[in-house]
Amino acid sequence: MTTSDKKKYKVIGTTPIRHDGADKVTGRAVYGIDFHTTGMLWGKILRSPHAHAKIKSIDATKALALPGVHAVVTGKDMAVARDIEVEAGETSLNYMHLSDNVMARDKALYKGHAVAAVAADTQHIAEEALGLIEVDYEVLTPVLNGREGMKSDAPLIHPDQTTKIMAFRFDPGTDSGEKSNIAGKSQLKLGDIDAGFKEADFIVEREYTTSWVHQGYIEAQNATAHWNNDDNITVWNSSQGTFNQRQLMAEILKHPVSQIKMVPMEIGGGFGGKIPVYLEIPAAMLSKKTGHPVKMTMTRTEVFEGTGPASAAQMKAKVGATKDGRITAAYAELVFEAGAFPGSAVGAGAQGMFTTYNIENVLIDGYDVVVNKPKSAAYRSPGTPQACFPAEAVIDELAELVGMDPLDFRMKNAAKEGDRRADGVQHPEMGNLECMEALKASDHYKSDLGGPNRGRGVASGYWGNAGMPASCSIAINADGTVSLAEGSPDIGGSRTSIAMMCAEAFGIAAEDVHPSIKDTDSIGYQGLTAGSSTTLRNGWAVFEVTNQAIELIKARAARLWETEPENVDFADGVFFSKAEKELKLTFKEMTGKLMETGGPISVAASVAPRGAGPSFTTHMVDVEVDPETGKVEILRYTAAQDVGTMIHPDYVEGQVQGGAVQGIGWALNEEYFFSDKGAMLNASYLDYRVPTMLDLPMIDTILVEHANPDHPFGVRGVAEISVVPPLGALANAIYAAVGVRMRDLPMAPHKIVKALQEKNGKTK
Amino acid sequence: MASEKTHVRTTLNGEATEYLCETNQSLLEVLRDVLLLTGTKEGCNDGNCGACTVNMDGRIVDSCLVLGVEAEGAEILTIEGVATPEGLHPIQQAFLENAALQCGICTPGFIIASKALLEKEPNPSEARIRHWLAGNLCRCTGYDKIVKAVVAAANTIGGKK
Asked: Is the overall model pTM greater than 0.90, yes or no?
């Protein structure tokens, strides 16, 4: 959509100060980790020092004898949860696996796996008590690599596990019947792959790897739980979905869902990592045992070792093109390390791979393989950064063979509305090509690199986004303001975007809507704050409640004007009589007349929208590589993204910039270093090292507003996709700068130096 | 084991403040768990993320690396002491106007660190800002808008806006 045919809005597209802003810049906002309550004890987790070990016995006698210690719980205190898989936003969860991940039962399956929890008067006493819990382990051989784990002679992590064969993502699948560490095999298939490669004049086939990386949210996991004497449980935590976590709590604790109240505190980042439950369960169990509220927080080391990072992947990609630059076939094999339990994002990754291109023949084999590492969790466009990295790197090599500019090659093959994805689904209306064209027209594209050892890379990315249910309620206040209640934890400004859509509908200012985020007892069901869906789905909920409220207020105006409601209309914030033009009242004026015309008005609605507009993006980056040290400096970065209609452009841009920087970290330096026994060796921010301010230039954006035709305000998800392209774009830029193709992430300095030495024929 | 507590006298956000703390408690723990001033955030508890930055006797420090007992006689400024009854500090206002926070957990640390910079150097370059704030991690914003907010605040304070 061009700017000229863009819908005209008064509030949407402006940049008001966020409603929670003053609280967050003054330290008043209460995050999960800040929560305190009367009589609170502190809980701590004892974690396995081994990556794979049988738990023969646990003796907590000495710990319980320590003054100030109140209780200890272990896996033996937990019921066995149901072995069924449920969809959770963008990945899936199995209750039994989740329960076993929260607290090991018979076996510890990774270093950092929780084996016991203690509650004490202070954090320091709880820590001391951990050292007094005696665990007798029988150490087993760990499986530490996906391809190794796939071998038939590999030790089995789950001795009864067989392989589930799936024809599509979320397919219940069929059982292979064979015992294996391969939990799932999925296949996406379009056209005839062999015929496609026969048509090709050039074929490039390569292998790639990526490392485990962490979301790196600054607020560690935390939970305070109170199991009251009436068996009602209240949990205060920071989560990406209170209703989902309530369900997980109910299943694992075997407790009625109606007797669990999840209170969403402010959340200090999540990026997918705060979807599952971890501490909520032991905190509730310790509270039940002690009768006190119990607060638990993780250390940063526990966050790295004991929560769900993004899978490492071992991948093959093979793509063919004709001499004139048409891609004829694409094949990939994706092996994702799920971690200790099944459920990597390999299915989502496969769905995102090659999806920005119109390719008639595609085959993607995906393997979900358990290894003795932390259970992977969602991380911003789960699975897709890994999968798009080989796709974009191979396509870059093909462009060079064909003799085309990498951006031109992508534009020639760009997927358009109606083209088929690898899973056969046709693309809806979207702005894939527009992003590429915008980048080509940019100053960045036209600029000179201006020096030796510099290079420019481009890469594209796709992410499907999610819909998910939402509920909100509004109360109309007599002063023309609106109280807006919703239930989606706000990670990046979503309460303001939701309030802005409400303000738009009523023709009032964003500041006249007062949004708040409610607990699970106080608002209808919400999906996760995930899948880039929060603004989209709550926009639908707002659309419903505001429309209903407008109809109710029309009836009140009709009463005032002694006419029928159908004779009253509402436009641009004004109620007016269709017959008598002089009869009109603004929304604000009408709210002052509600009491005299029948009393207050409030409306609640729940929605389950479909039609999440998919996201498309292309990034361009200039780098300079120091050939002596291998250090990559980012000189200039531009992200072009189809963002749909922007509600709050600053926070849309912020999502694009933030995701790009996470992708830069993934590409260049972030990784889990594991010992040969499976211990993470760099479990601190200092040694893991996320990008700092000093590592980066400004991140320029080109925000293409291709409105989502399936949304009342044109919203499409914006938050996740920007993490996808940096991996490929940086690999391509490094090649353009110094002529080495980096195929193993991260592209750390020592690897670049080694690649340069090999290229220059030096073996040292 | 609970040890004998130490009586500490400080000036906190301009007011004389006394507290009792154990010798193994960090200043961060004292602020958050004893004084219930949770505006100073805990991100890593090992000095690497800057979320717990406070100003102590004119220097910015990671409060997780300072012991509570070390604050005896010190003047400490936390995020709770930055705004006045008249309103937000220009840096706080600039963070809001420039959308320099998403989740906001790192924001108090960034504001305390930025304030110390602008008091020392009223017109820092972009490179200087990036160098000064390199010890404060933000995982949401990509830092772009934080840099712009600090520049905007410097302009406001300098009367250039």
From this structure: yes
